[in-house]
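Table S2 (text version). Query chain:
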Amino acid sequence: MRTTLTLEEDVATELGRLRKARNEPFKRMVNAVLRAGLATLGAKRALKARRFRSEPISLGTPRLKNLDDISEVLAFAEGETHA
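Corresponding C-alpha cell output:
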C-alpha cells in the first residue's frame, strides 16, 4: 500500500540512525519499527484484557461497632490495663 506519511523531526532522526546502523532501506526500517510498535501495543492490550477477579468472603461481624473512637479501639487491642 502506498501512502504519504509526515514524520516529526525526532522520529525521522531516530529512524535515520536506525537505518544507518542496520544498513536497511528507509522503507523497510519504517515498516519494522511500525510492526514492533504494533506488537507492543497488542501485548499491552492483551495484558489489560486479563483481569484478576477475587471472590469476597465473610470475615464475620466486627467486634467493635465504632472505629472512630480511637481510645476504644486501643483499649480493645491492647487491653484495658495497658498503660
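Notes on Table S2: Residues 9-49 form one domain. The chain has a mean pLDDT of 85.
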